[in-house]
Amino acid sequence: MAVKEKISLPRADYPEQVGVSSKEILAFIKDAEESNIEVHSIMVLRHGKVAFETWRDPYGPEIPHTIYSISKSFTSVAAGFAIEEGYFELDTKVIDIFPEFRPEKEDPYLEEMTIRHLLTMTSGKDVSLLDDKSKNKWKEDFFKSKWYNEPGKEWKYISENTYMVCAAIKRITGMSVIDFLTPRLFDPLGYDRRPFWETDIDGVEAGGWGLYLTTEEIAKFIYCVHNGGRFNGKQVIPEHWVKEATKKQVESLRYHELDNRAGYGYFFWRNGIVPNSFRADGMFSQFGVCFDDYDAEFIITSCEITEQKTRDLIWRHFPAAFIDEKDDSDYNEIKDKLFFPALPELP
Predict the structure, then answer these.
(1) pLDDT in the model for residue 305
(2) Average pLDDT, stretch 138-143?
(3) What's the rounded Cα separation, in Å, for the pair 189 and 256?
(4) pLDDT band of 345, cuts 50, 70, 90
(5) CA nearest 14: which of 323, 334, 329?
(6) Helix axes 70-84, 215-226, angle to 10 degrees
(7) SS (H, E, C) the chain
(8) 5 has a pLDDT exceeding 80
(9) HSE on the CB side for 157, CA within 13 Å?
């Protein structure tokens, strides 16, 4: 097997070189500790360079981290490639891809549901969180689940919508999503290993969860998306797909937090508190945040169940940390303080 070329993101010599405040990063780290938020890693990018990065021991640069629902944003890009290459369309009916689940008595809602409805969480299917994922019935559970509304009428965050996008990609292309994405996304981004993604017994990726990546692998993906799909001087993701996937496609008004009510794209969230920003979002506060007005990205892996608590931490310091570029830096004076204390060893 050929050794894959690892492409690393370029690094700034110090944060201020690309317009990021070292003092504000230190304030973020102190705030996270005082707020009892267990951060595992952060990476700050501006103007295409890593301005700052740090990990909490025992986590490190080469250790893949579960990214939970950030996985959905990778599924979004996989769907974008599939549509671009003509495997299916946004308005392709899901039941036409899986005709074995068409009931004898016609279900008009089932005949309406499309790939677009899956991508926008408006399929109308209400799959139970209690369904047993250890059994090979993931697709069956989706089609047999009750309707909460007609497709396209109401947004509801159901992770199995994302799984069905992965199932559609495998059914139409004959490839797993990992295999489908490897030459199209992972190789151009310089991933030097095959990522692990949880699957069902048929090898279909969970889609909405289950992908493990290093912090820099997340960062390269988020940067590529925010850069119009370009990476390392090449168009990797179709530009029009990135634009459509990250803009508000539907209202997301089921939650009370402003950040969750600002609209939903194709498995990407718009942010409500910081204008002109969007994010890939995973449970326990895994985030890849893109700041349009600052040409900047912020990546965090962590273990904080209250996601808005972590988002509020981010907003207290970013985008305030984005400053004018300058040649002098506070970094050398405080660099020995820019780290998170190690996690306590287990007994």
Answers:
(1) 97
(2) 94
(3) 36
(4) confident
(5) 329
(6) 50
(7) CCCCCCCCCCECCCHHHHCECHHHHHHHHHHHHHCCCCEEEEEEEECCEEEEEEECCCCCCCCCEECCCHHHHHHHHHHHHHHHCCCCCCCCEHHHHCHHHCCCCCCHHHHHCEHHHHHCCCCCEECCCCCCCCCCCHHHHHHHCEECCCCCCCCCCCCHHHHHHHHHHHHHHCCCHHHHHHHHHHCCCCCCCCCEECECCCCCECCCCCEEECHHHHHHHHHHHHCCCEECCEECCCHHHHHHHHCCCECCCCCCCHHHCCCECCCCEECCCCCCEEEEEECCCEEEEEEHHHCEEEEEEECCCCHHHHHHHHHHHCCCCECCCCCCCCHHHHHHHCCCCCCCCCC
(8) no
(9) 20
pTM: 0.96
Q: Cα separation of 46 and 11, whole Å?
A: 10
What are the φ and ψ backbone dihedral angles of 80, each rounded to 5 degrees?
-60, -45
Q: Is the pLDDT of residue 292 over 70?
A: yes
pLDDT, position 85? 98
Confidence of residue 3 (pLDDT cuts 50, 70, 90): low
